[in-house]
């Protein structure tokens, strides 16, 4: 039986190899993941026009956005403004894309996305959103659809410009505490294992939607507000040789640890949604939203990485550009907007 010290050294070696692999891939790709992006959902009444939304992002120095649907008007306006995009592939399109082969995927890409936005503006295709959590009916179609989309892009000579991934809820993890114990839900592994192989082969990130606010709101007794908010007064979580002072880092590293357990430690993590609401819950205030989002922006800009992957920037997309009054669920779901409809900020924040 191996000694504890030998086992610890083996684990450390695997972590260091994973960090080296991610850093090397980032360097080879001319990494610029430290730029911040903002999600633009449109589930609301009286939202500003796509042109106004795109102009607002540019006025505030933001040149990346995530679109949940390939709306032609939004694609055209954002691409014309020079904004690089994560474009959502709707869950309900996955069955067709999985069964139609690369040719069908190419036709879908041309008519749905590339007819409205040039390929150089499409950074990622996010095939489905939280499929394994909210729409398991489409789970079997997810990886085949991703493969067909990638094959279509490759046939067009665009696979170096546009990567294909899929955004997941954090519930894809069966274990996340401490972060080094991160492990995927066993029921999801038949989908996740071939997906991780695909991501590793194509250089695309594993996408996760991470909301420390919701973790705190759901379990305030065990997730203290300061820990969710990057607060200096938060009690640190010791995990072997590293220490965690916030839930954002802990979540990203739990995902990284889960991928390492499956043999894919070189795949980067991108946080495709995170944010803090301004109303609808006692902890949902403009002051807390400003504190949380400013820290996310600052850490991304500095490229500090996480305790498990220090110095490796995490690509992040803040949710949301505007409040969306048509969203279902708890009241706070409708109050994530960073900007008001008139273009003024809901709280003081800069994105430089």
TrEMBL record:
<feature type="signal peptide">
    <location>
        <begin position="1"/>
        <end position="27"/>
    </location>
</feature>
<keyword id="KW-0326">Glycosidase</keyword>
<dbReference type="GO" id="GO:0042973">
    <property type="term" value="F:glucan endo-1,3-beta-D-glucosidase activity"/>
</dbReference>
<dbReference type="InterPro" id="IPR000490">
    <property type="entry name" value="Glyco_hydro_17"/>
</dbReference>
<comment type="similarity">
    <text>Belongs to the glycosyl hydrolase 17 family.</text>
</comment>
<keyword id="KW-0378">Hydrolase</keyword>
<dbReference type="InterPro" id="IPR017853">
    <property type="entry name" value="GH"/>
</dbReference>
<keyword id="KW-0732">Signal</keyword>
<dbReference type="Pfam" id="PF00332">
    <property type="entry name" value="Glyco_hydro_17"/>
</dbReference>
<protein>
    <submittedName>
        <fullName>Uncharacterized protein</fullName>
    </submittedName>
</protein>
<dbReference type="InterPro" id="IPR044965">
    <property type="entry name" value="Glyco_hydro_17_plant"/>
</dbReference>
């Amino acid at each position: 039986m191996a000694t504890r010290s030998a086992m610890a050294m083996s684990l450390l070696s695997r972590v260091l190899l994973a960090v080296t692999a991610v850093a090397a891939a980032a360097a080879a790709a001319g990494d610029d993941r430290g730029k911040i992006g903002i999600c633009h959902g449109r589930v609301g009444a009286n939202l500003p026009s796509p042109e106004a939304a795109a102009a607002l992002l540019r006025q505030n120095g933001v040149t990346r956005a995530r679109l949940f649907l390939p709306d032609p008007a939004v694609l055209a306006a954002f691409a014309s403004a020079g904004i690089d995009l994560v474009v959502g592939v709707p869950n309900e399109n996955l069955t067709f894309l999985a069964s139609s082969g690369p040719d069908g995927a190419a036709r879908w890409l041309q008519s749905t996305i590339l007819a409205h936005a040039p390929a150089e503006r499409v950074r990622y295709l996010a095939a489905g959103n939280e499929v394994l959590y909210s729409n398991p009916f489409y789970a079997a179609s997810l990886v085949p659809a991703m493969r067909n989309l990638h094959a279509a892009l490759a046939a067009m000579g665009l696979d170096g410009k546009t990567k294909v991934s899929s955004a997941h809820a954090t519930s894809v993890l069966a274990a996340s505490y401490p972060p080094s114990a991160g492990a995927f839900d066993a029921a999801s592994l038949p989908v996740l294992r071939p997906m991780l192989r695909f991501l590793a082969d194509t250089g695309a990130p594993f996408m996760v939607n991470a909301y420390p606010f919701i973790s705190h709101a759901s379990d305030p007794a065990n997730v203290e507000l300061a820990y969710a908010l990057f607060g200096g007064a938060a009690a640190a979580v010791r995990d072997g040789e590293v220490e965690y002072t916030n839930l954002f880092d802990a979540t990203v590293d739990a995902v990284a640890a889960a991928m390492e357990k499956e043999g894919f430690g070189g795949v980067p993590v991108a946080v495709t949604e995170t944010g803090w609401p301004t109303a609808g819950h006692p902890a949902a205030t403009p002051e807390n939203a400003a504190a949380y989002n400013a820290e996310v922006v600052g850490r991304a800009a500095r490229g500090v990485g996480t305790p498990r992957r220090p110095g490796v920037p995490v690509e992040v997309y803040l949710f949301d550009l505007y409040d969306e009054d048509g969203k279902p669920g708890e009241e706070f779901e409708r109050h994530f907007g960073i900007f008001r409809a008139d273009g003024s900020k809901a709280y003081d924040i800069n994105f430089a």
